[in-house]
Amino acid sequence: MNQKTLINSFIGTESEKHTIAKNIFLVLSGTLFIALMANLRIVLPFTPVPITGGTFAIMLGGLAYGKKLAPLTVLTYIVAGSIGLPVFAGFNGGLTIFSPSGGYVIGYFFAALVCGYFADKGWTKSYFRTVLILFFANIILYAFGLFQLSFFIGNKNIFMAGLYPFIPGDIIKMALVTIILPTAWKFTREK
């Protein structure tokens, strides 16, 4: 795996056997990180969608892991939750992907794919490019989330229930990821 991702710059492996073990460890630890961050949540009384740290974990993981490991990690998270493990917000498990907030969970996969794609291109070394990636990934996330949420609450208040309350928190999460990633590159072997 010759990706220009942050994680590969920190953790190098020599053999194929070590690469497989490393990737399994990264996927499992990334899945756990997403689950923990998804359970840092704020419940809003006017929407069925909570504010969580899950988007922070998705964006950070996607940009650090690259286009192969990031989607695999998110898919592992979605499968773990869908089979009943309590990884979704509120320590829920089961078919949450069919709930009002399920579109956002599905969007996690595509946001991680986009983040990973650009991470492999080396974009995470630049603060400006990192912001662009995060902005685009958030648009994808919101598109999936709002689409599914509209089936549960209709289109009348869709932006108030699924977009506007989340923008300030997402700006903070984007700022944190933007500070972390390009700065972390300065401490790697490949600068």
Shape: globular
Largest sheet: 2 strands, antiparallel
Widest sheet: strand order? Answer: 1-2
Cα(first) to Cα(last) distance is 18 Å
How would you spell out the order of helices and strands?
HHEEHHHHH
Q: What's the count of strands?
A: 2
Work out the strand percent.
Answer: under 5%
Integer-rounded radius of gyration? 16 Å
Mean pLDDT: 91
Structural class: mainly alpha
Q: Spans of 5+ residues with little confidence (pLDDT < 50)?
A: none
Contiguous helical run count: 7
Determine the fraction of residues in helical runs and give it as a percent range.
55-70%
List the main descriptive attributes of the protein structure presented here.
single chain; mainly alpha; two-stranded antiparallel sheet; 2 strands; about 190 residues
Question: Can you tell me about this structure?
Answer:
By secondary structure, the chain is mainly α. Helix content is 66%, strand content 2%. The protein is built from seven helices and two strands. The protein has helices spanning 6-10, 16-38, 54-82, 102-120, 127-153, 158-162, 167-185; strands spanning 41-42, 51-52. Strands 1-2 form a two-stranded antiparallel ribbon. A hairpin with an 8-residue loop joins β1 and β2 (51-52). α2 packs across α3 and α4 (102-120) packs antiparallel against α5. The mean pLDDT is 91.
